[in-house]
Amino acid sequence: MLTLAEYPDPVPGPGEILIRVSATAVNRADVLQRQGRYPPPPGTTDILGLEAAGTVERLGSGVTGFAPGDRVMALLAGGGYAELVATPAGQVMHVPDALDDILAAAVPEAYLTAWQALGRTAPPQPGDRVLVHAAASGVGTAALQIARELGARCIATTRSTEKAWMLEDRAEHVVVPINGEFAEQVTALTDGRGVDRVVDLVGAAYLRESLRCLATGGHILLIGMVGGRRVDLDLGELFAKRATLTASTLRARPLEEKAALVADFAEWGLPRLADGRLRPTVHDMLPVSRVQDAHRMVEANEPLGKVVLSLTADAIQER
Ligand SMILES: NC(=O)c1ccc[n+]([C@@H]2O[C@H](COP(=O)([O-])OP(=O)(O)OC[C@H]3O[C@@H](n4cnc5c(N)ncnc54)[C@H](OP(=O)(O)O)[C@@H]3O)[C@@H](O)[C@H]2O)c1
Prior knowledge:
Layout: E1 16-26, H1 28-34, E2 51-59, E3 71-75, E4 84-88, E5 92-94, H2 101-105, H3 108-121, E6 129-132, H4 138-149, E7 153-157, H5 161-167, E8 173-175, H6 183-189, E9 195-200, H7 204-212, E10 214-222, H8 235-241, E11 244-247, H9 255-275, E12 282-287, H10 291-299, E13 306-310, H11 313-317
Bound molecules: NADP nicotinamide-adenine-dinucleotide phosphate.
NADP nicotinamide-adenine-dinucleotide phosphate (NAP) binds near residues 113, 223, 250, 298 and 303.
C-alpha cells in the first residue's frame, strides 16, 4: 500500500546535494520494494524512488561543480518519491537544455544500468549483434539506443505483439518469443552466427535460449530477473560457446563506483542527450497523487519506456 505522508526535510551531509524534486520515475524495483520483496539497503530511507530530476536546493560542505538553482538529475539509493532528497554529489548530473524534467527523470536508472553493461562491462564493437530482452522496458529502450550509438546492430525481444510493433524503428529486428523460445529466430536473423552480446533483463526464463543463440565468445549481461531466478543449466553449454556471463546491480554498489559510473556516462551520454542522439522514452506522466496507477501500469507490463511521476505543487495537492 502506498501512502503520502509528511517526513522531516532531509539535510545534505558533507559531499551531498539537496535536490528539490520535480519528477521521479517508477522502476520495477519500486514495485518489488513496495511488495516487500526488495528491501532498501541498510541505512537507506524507506521512501521509494531510485531517480529524480529537479533543481539544486542546497549544497553540503565540499561540493563543487553545482550551484543552487542548477537543473539536475540524480541516481538515488531511495527517496525520489519526495519533494526533497539528499544524495551524494557523485550521483548527480546536470540536465541538458534539450530535456525537460519529465524526460530527465527517466534518464538516470535506465541509462546508467544500460551503460554499466554496454559501455563499461562489455562494449560491443561496431557491427556486433546485440540482443536486448524486454526491450520495451525503461532499461531496454535505453540499451537499444546505447547499443546503436556504439555502432551495434540490435535485435529486440518483447512478448507483446503490440509493443513489437512499437519497437520496430528502434531495432533492426524485433522477435516475439514463442512459448519462451527465440533462439531459432535470432540465429536465423544473424545468418547462423548468433549474437555477440545479450542484455538480459529477464533471467531464468530466457537464459538457456540466450546461450543457444549466443555467438562463440559472446557475453550475456544479466541485469534483471523478471522471468525468474532458478534455471537448470548444463555448464557444458557455457563451455561450448566459451561464453561470459556477468550479473550486475546498480543500487548496492559502493558510492565511489556509482560516482565513477555517473562521471563516465555523463561524459559520453550528456552530449548525446543534448543533441537528441539519445532520447528517453516516457510512456506516461502522472501526478504523484496517482502513484498507485503508475505502479499498476508497470506491474501489468504496459509501458513502452518509463512511467514518470510529477511532484510539482499541483501534482501533490491533487491528493
Ligand atoms: N541490475 C540493475 O542494476 C538493474 C537496474 C534497473 C533495472 N533492473 C532490472 O531491469 C529490468 C527492467 O527494469 P525496468 O524498470 O526498466 O522494467 P519494466 O519497465 O518494468 O519492464 C520489464 C519488462 O520485462 C518484461 N517481462 C516481465 N515479466 C516477464 C517474464 N516473466 N518473462 C519475460 N519478460 C517479462 C516485460 O516486457 P514485455 O511485456 O515487453 O515482454 C516488462 O515490460 C527489471 O528486471 C529490473 O529489475 C536492474
